[in-house]
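Entry 14. Structure prediction run on the chain below.
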Amino acid sequence: MTTTSSSRSSQAALAETRPPQKQQQQSSEYTGVRLRQWGRWAAEVRVPGTRQKLWIGTFETDRQAALAYDAAVFCFYGVHLPRRRRFNCPAAPRPDIPAWVRVQLNVASVKAIAERHARVVDARLPPLVAAAGAGGPSAGGGASAPPPGDDRTDGMDDGEALVAGASAADESLCSVPPLRRRRRTSARRPEPGES
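Output returned:
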């Protein structure tokens, strides 16, 4: 019995010397955003139709990370999100992506669009939020218009550079087939002899 009591005392000593368990990471109110150990906010999103997560990047504030997440979700789904998804900042403007670019988007270009969009929109967001609160044109809750005199210097309209800007190594590691929308119809298919 002395071995049992000695093993219990050694277990108690080990329990006292163990470092305390890590505190849980500070969570964000935004979807797809978490706080890294060194204090920066990280954003990531699942790539539709795969089990992959797209690492968007790290940002100074959780709002920037949330805007990047929103831009990536917009690139994948457009304005019509699946049932369980939502935008973190519904009143914030969305990236201006030409239709011909949306067909060619791969994971690397979605990441580039999301990072750039988050940094640009975060700098302009306080005036947009103030205008929405004052009953401005964006008070309806949809995507708001850019402020007057905005010459679109954020590069979002330069879709060709975004698609071509991804390096060949990035494309080989991260490329996915172009996103295609499936049309859901409630009508049944006609039988082979029917018209």
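Residues 135-182 have pLDDT under 50 and may be disordered.
Filed with the rest of this week's runs.
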